[in-house]
Amino acid sequence: MDALDRVVKPKTKRAKRFLEKREPKLKENTKNAMLIKGGNANLTVTEVLKDIYAVKKPFAVLYKKKNITRPFEDQTSLEFFSKKSDCSLFLFGSHNKKRPNNLIIGRMFDYHVLDMIELGVEKFVSLKDVKNSKCPEGTKPMLIFAGDVFDVNEEYRRLKSLLIDFFRGPSVPSIRLAGLEYVLHFTAVDGKIYMRSYKVLLKKSGCKIPRIELEEMGPSLDLVMRRTHLASDDLYKLSLKQPKALKPKKKKNISHDVFGTTYGRIHMQKQDLGKLQTRKMKGLKKRPAQKSAEDGGVSPKKSKSA
Amino acid sequence: VEEVLAVAEEQEAEKRRSVTVEKELELEFDLGNLLALDRNPPPAAGLRGAGPRREALLRALARDNTQLLVARLWELPAERAGGAGGPLVAQLPEPAFRLPREKPPPRPRPPTRWEQFARLKGIRRRKRTSLVWDEQAKEWRRRWGYRRAGGDPARAWLAEVPAGADPEEDQFARLRREKRERVARNELNRLRNLARAHRAATAVPAAPLHPTGHQSREELSHVARVARVSTASLGRFQPRLPKESAEPPSRSGGRKRRFEPLLGNLSAERSRQLELLRDMGSKKPVLDITRAVNKQLRQEEAEAAAAKGKKQSQRGKRGRRQQRAGR
């Protein structure tokens, strides 16, 4: 156990639990995001950070104070924050004349920066500007990416992976179908990325599948991609590596046919069919008269010779 | 009747149409992540102009895509959680989209010295009971902790002086000192195991050459030789340096032992056999024991001196000063 393998062992159970939560595990925790303001963050950028925090609660940390750093030049302070708050995703907002309304979205691997993409916010509609009913906090959103650019361009592909990682939420085994209320839709067109959030209304339709009506809700952003700092291919591959223990074990001797019938295979030892235990049928029992006729001349008792 | 049927069919078609969406390319779904990827190029012309028209177009696109995703989700095996009246819950498959991990996967820690020994000897861990029978209190008490089996300090009012010990020695102090030593030894071993594990984890393969300043001639020549031989043709066509000796490649190709041909030099063989017979016949032993023992002793002394010198240099100035002060 790693918590007890330290030079200074934890003295309380609470400290031990704290360390165990942060150590590398087979099945990892949900990624936390830290939302940081830069030295010169303006109102737009602050509002964006607050809205994203509302969407990502409780898996996000919003830093109240301004931090004067430049992520693209020096990543040490980001890494320090990540280590302190155990967050592997970050969103850094800043504003200057050259790069107005700047958002740097990024993720970490082993508390070191893996990918960073700088996006500029061209238009922003906040949660409180849209006067509609909202969905409850912590809803797992449905994510939809539209546009062939997301597959063709390498930077857009990484951006897609980053956005999925960011907005994914906890990984759940089952979901309540009526609770699918929130959808985040990203469209990449003409060098711009439109992010829209909608509330899903499930209307009755004739068949089992409900008809979807969307209602505009939540933050909507018009983004344009600026600089990027992507991880090298081998580092990225290293970060994607999953331990073998997580691979689902293949069940042997089970097969399915076209109609959905499950077939199983049982391996048996060799059986002596003569000694099989079958049901007792009284009618087939050997009668004593029949038995002696079968035995014939061989009498079991020897005749004594006087 | 036909009219009624036609109207009914039209109604059905209408219902089905309301949930179907036409798309050029099929979407890719990852239901574990509630993710849908649409590869169709969006209508660029409509989206260029700013304003409500763009919003409407985006919304329509989103509606279509969401409809497809929800259709897929509704097809998953679902059941009613919490009895008949509970909500309809669908079983999601494992997320398929590969996302990078947060931290590298955990590495198994190397076994400690005790664990290695136990594995060697085949010692297995015995599970201890949590309660122990306490004779004095006549009940089951915990092995350690609050009200443990033998730990009440008021009970240890007597400490016998063992057979061969000094009668003036304070036994209680001795017991306390021994316990402190045991704890310290345990802690030391734990830290040693930890250091060993840490060293194994961050082991960098030793560089074949020291950094400049510490290179010896033999080291350099060895490394140069290795570098020469590390080509595809094992160094046969490598040009030699100006002052390097021309060494022909060994005819044996790297084999260390070479045997004489069977029918080679007859006179050499005869002389060898005669010498062997002479040595076997003579009374004097071939191995001079005194010389061999002296040689071994000298070697051991040299080793001891080298080790002592190394230890002194390791301990450094402080060690040497302590040694001198101690004496």
UniProtKB/TrEMBL annotation, chain A:
Highest taxon, organism lineage: Eukaryota
Pfam family, one: Brix
Record keywords: Nucleus
Boundaries of every Brix domain copy: 31-234
Cellular component annotations (GO), alphabetically ordered: nucleolus
GO molecular function: rRNA binding
Compositionally skewed regions (Basic residues) per UniProt: 277-289
Main location (coarse class): nucleus
Listed GO biological process terms: maturation of LSU-rRNA from tricistronic rRNA transcript (SSU-rRNA, 5.8S rRNA, LSU-rRNA); ribosomal large subunit assembly
Family classification: Belongs to the RPF2 family.
Protein name: Ribosome production factor 2 homolog
Organism per entry: Nyctiprogne leucopyga
Gene name tied to this protein: Rpf2
From TrEMBL, chain B:
Domain of life: Eukaryota
Region (Disordered): 234-265, 299-327
Keywords: Nucleus, Ribosome biogenesis
Pfam families the record matches: RRS1
Example of a GO cellular component annotation carried by this entry: nucleolus
Keyword match Nucleus: yes
Biased composition range(s): Basic residues: 308-327
InterPro entries from the UniProt entry: Ribosom_reg (IPR007023)
Cellular localization per UniProt: Nucleus
Coiled coil: none
UniProt GO BP: endonucleolytic cleavage in ITS1 to separate SSU-rRNA from 5.8S rRNA and LSU-rRNA from tricistronic rRNA transcript (SSU-rRNA, 5.8S rRNA, LSU-rRNA); ribosomal large subunit biogenesis
Keyword Plastid attributed: no
Function summary: Involved in ribosomal large subunit assembly.
Recorded family membership: Belongs to the RRS1 family.
Protein name, as recorded: Ribosome biogenesis regulatory protein
Gene coding for it: Rrs1
